[in-house]
Amino acid sequence: MACVGVFVAYLPVTTVSVSLPAIQRALNASTSQLSWVSDAFVLPMAALILTAGVFGDVHGRKKVYQAGLALSGLGAVVALCAQNVQTVWAGQAVAGLGSAALLPTTLALISHAVPDPRERGKFIGLWATSLTAALALGPVIAGTTLEHFDWRWIYLLPVPVSLIALACAAKLLTDSRAPGSRRLDWPGQISAALAITALVYGIIEGGAGSFTDPEVLVALATAVVSGVAFVMAERASSSPMLDLTLFRSPAFTATTLVAMISFLGLIGFFFALSLYFGMVQHLSTLDAAWRLLMVSMVPLVLGAPIGRLVHRVSARLLIPGGLLVSSAALLSLTDIDADTSFGSLAWRLALLGLGMAFIITAMTATAVSSVPFHQAGMAAAGNNAFRQVGAALGPAVLGALLSGKAVDALPGHLADAGLGARTVEQVTTVADQAGLGAVRGLDLGADTPRVLGALSEAFLDGLHLCLVVAAVLTLLAAVVGVLLLRRPPHTARPVAVGGRAAGHDAAPSLTGTPDVR
Q1: Dihedral angle at the C-alpha atoms of 144, 149, 150, 152, nearest 10 degrees?
Q2: pLDDT beyond 90 at 123
Q3: What is the pLDDT of residues 182-213, one digit of tens each?
Q4: What burial class does residue 422 get, using C-beta atoms within 10 Å of its C-beta: 0-12 exposed, 13-18 middle, 19+ buried?
Q5: Residue 359 and residue 353: Cα distance in Å, rounded?
Q6: CA 157, CA 134: separation in Å to the nearest integer?
Q7: φ and ψ of 249, to 5 deg
Q8: pLDDT value at position 510?
């Protein structure tokens, strides 16, 4: 049931991302509006995932799991009925609430059922495989759907899957709660949600307009103040949503920072890549899906085997190694253009998938195993929360960089194409006011092919900048992993707890401290 839950949680990620060009054409959406299509889903995940974890600990993980499935299905129904981009945002937000409930509870269910960290790694590998299965199938489902039906039907599949999973969970799933007396931390929740939302809003709107606009400055200032308030609230709380003492573990700190930084670069890259397939290569959604499948198939195949490696090979090797491979793959893509073939793209995207396969499984298992057993659920929720913050910032940051660079480069490419000053001014005005997507809708007679060619070249300038930034961020995450991850000490003998062998009653964590059950 944990694997089914994470599949439902992540299915909208690539299903929607690969469909962004079709949504843009159908709804005349700007690049910043498209960023909100992605971030309307990711923001609730990032802002509420910790609260959902605490709610499951207090009131029962089965209830939160079932609520997550119900919200995921409801969000899909709302988006399925959308007639404008604002309704798509609403559906994505409701589905994001569902995913926020599903992610921490699925990992907590595994931690409850498999307390031994060494044995748990195998099951987290299966969990990660289900996650990547959703990422792999999403583009193919979207592409096949858009070949024959309207774009709204990409939201159909989560509805029956959620309903069937709800029915199965009611009979098959055993409820569990965390030991102790945890309670909801409302000051921490409110300040965290406000900080994350204000930060992403400020970056998206700053990229679409100017970072000196009053509303953008207010949003960024609100993010800083709320972030400080969150830290103060957690330090003062007797039952914190995120126990800040977790960061005393170098392994937990490393995996949390790696999760946020790497997903900022990687998810931002996927956002830009989906637009490249639509705006530059003019591919159908299904053709774009086959290319994206090269990224997600490798983690799908390798997720379970890597899960078995987590406690045999040091995380200090697995995580930075995967990040270095991903960074190299991103840099190798900086020479792509409108004529880059499927074969030329395939090996580079597969190399990126290989790096991601090591990152996702090892990062999650290390975060959960690096803290005492009774804090494993909070550690998993915290790691997921920071990962989703990075995923929310990715489209915002790289979308703003892409748009800014492309709009700046567009006049030069239009002039190089031999277009007159009046046409150049008309096209750049449209790009400034309505976004790059609006330029494609201009009817300029005989000049239209040259305008579209110049638009593609300008977009490629923005894409190449995004690839370099994503590669640098991934490399930075690798450096963080090398510096903070520690080689786990070798345990020669099991530790006895309460007169029973540690093999039965305790298991060593990556910090060398036994996890007492």
Answers
A1: -60
A2: no
A3: 677 889 888 988 988 888 788 777 766 778 88
A4: exposed
A5: 10
A6: 11
A7: -85, 115
A8: 32
* Exposure letters 454-492 (e unless 16+ CB within 10 A, then b): bbbbbbbbbbbbbbebbbebbbbbbebbbebbbebeeee
What's the whole-number average pLDDT of the chain?
81
What count of other Cβ atoms lies within 10 Å of the Cβ of residue 113? 12
Residue position matching structure tokens 């609430």: 97
**CA-based nearest residue to 304, from 479, 128, 135:** 128
Q: What is the pTM of this model?
A: 0.74
What is the chain's length?
Answer: 517
Q: Give the CA dihedral 333, 338, 341, 342, nearest 10 degrees.
A: 70
DSSP 512: S
Mean pLDDT confidence for 390-417 = 85
Give the sign of the dihedral formed by CA 283, CA 469, CA 481, CA 232. negative
Of 230 and 501, more confident:
230
pLDDT band for position 8 (50/70/90)? very high
Burial 356-368 (b: 16+ CB within 10 A, else e): bbbbbbbbbbbbb
